Structure formats: structure tokens, C-alpha cells
Amino acid sequence: MNTSPVDLFYSKFEQAAGRAVLFELKIRLFADKTKNISKLSDSHDFDRVYKAVLSEFESKLSDSDREQLKLGKKLRDHIVHAEFQKAFWRLKPAPGGVRMISNLGTTGEEILKKIEAVMSGNEEAKIVPMAKNSGKFGWLLEAANGSLLDEAYENSTKAIAIVDRVSLEHALE
């Protein structure tokens, strides 16, 4: 069977999306077996379920756990809704991206002042999408080719491991 490169990109998306949906399922199952929040497990609003679980088990989570779960939630939102650009910037914030500075100026002195203002945090430089105006398919190709979907899969797996750990601790109480 001959698999096209596009099919490989679809496969990477399928794996990342599947893992993101599994993260949601684990959160919902955890809510379902938790007396105080079980009624929320069927809520259409996943954000509400997610927040209730985090609130209920706040004391069992380290700062690192909370950050990983937050990333897992955001990746779930962005991958499942095919918001590849937003997912990309969640995983690869500012450093690797191209930035645009508005009203840069025309003289060397004006440009230097503007760059210094950005570096000191007094001026904002907007992130320019790498696949600007390429549409969903362009972002899918870039996301798969640039390892975004692999990283999303890995980060969702880490978030699921945290949910599993806390769920097990809760069951053993």
C-alpha cells in the first residue's frame, strides 16, 4: 500500500487529536466519579468540567502539574478545533517565531529605539504566523512537518498521566 505524504500528515493529526480527546475523556471520567462534581461530567462546556476538576483536586497538583494540564487543555481546544496556529504558539511561543514591530520608523535611530523598546518590554512586537494566509491545509502541513502534532501528542500524554495519577490517588483515599 502506497501512502502519500498528505496521508501521513492526516495520520499525525489523527494521533494528536485522538490523544487530545482522550485527555478530555479522562477529565470527564474523573469528574463523573467525584461526588462533588459528578453532575458536571456530561456538561457540553468542557472548560467548566476541566475547571471543576482542577478546583476539586488543587491540593494534589504541583505548579508543574497545573501548567501541564493547562497546556493539555489548550492543545485539546486548538487541535480538536483545527486551530493549528494557536496550538503552534502554545507549544512554541515567542523565541522561534518571527515578530513584527509596528511603526518601525525610517531612520537607523528610530529603528534602534523601537527595537530597544521591544526588548525592554515597553513596546509590543506581534508574532507573525509562519504560514500566514495559507489556510487550514497549509497549517496542517506545517504543523505535521514541523513536529507540532508530535509535540501535541506528547504533551497530551503527559497531561493524561497527571490525571491518571491524581485519579488513582483519589480512588485510594
Summarize this entry quickly.
With 173 residues, the chain is mainly α. It is 66% helix and 3% strand.
Key descriptive features of the protein:
two-stranded antiparallel sheet, 173 residues, mainly alpha, single chain
Secondary-structure map with pairings?
Elements: H1 5-32, H2 46-56, H3 63-80, H4 84-91, E1 98-100, H5 108-120, E2 126-128, H6 135-145, H7 148-172
Antiparallel strand pairs: 1-2
What is the number of E strands?
2
Rough shape? globular
Indicate the percent of residues in helices. 55-70%
Largest sheet: 2 strands, antiparallel
Number of helices: 7
Low-confidence stretches: 94-98
The average pLDDT value, as a whole number, equals 81
Beta content comes to under 5%
Would you tell me the structural class of the helices and strands? Answer: mainly alpha
Strand ordering within the main sheet: 1-2
Instruction: Report, as a whole number of angstroms, the end-to-end distance.
Output: 51 Å
How would you spell out the order of helices and strands? HHHHEHEHH
Number of domains: 1
Tell me the Rg in angstroms: 20 Å
